Model the fold of this input.
Amino acid sequence: MRKIVVALTVLLTCSGLLLTFGESIGLEIRAVQWVAIGHIWGGVFFLVVFPLYAWDHISTNRAMLRRFVPRTLSGVVQTASAIVLILTGVVLFLYGGQAWLALRQWHHWVTYPLAGALTVHFLLPKGSRGG
Done:
């Protein structure tokens, strides 16, 4: 399930960036609309898969969470970022253009800590030392 969550994160990050900067880089409106549909469906799958994976992953690694190490910190940042992205994404889906600009900005900017923490979490050494 980890590969699915990572793949969805990459898909959502790339499609979100295309939605944000698509028109300024010359994407046609039709292409932006297709990207938006893909982003919404990817978000729906993420909404289902991420909580299941996070619960299982945190439960399995509970012993490691007792120590405050970089791997734990990156996992906390990932979890918090994903929760904010899910919540803001649901509001944006339900209210679209009527949603607050600040909410859309949160949804965009929280993507970067998620991607950074995911990368750090992946690159840190695994094992009993906690890295």
The longest helix spans residues 29-60. The chain has five helices and no strands.
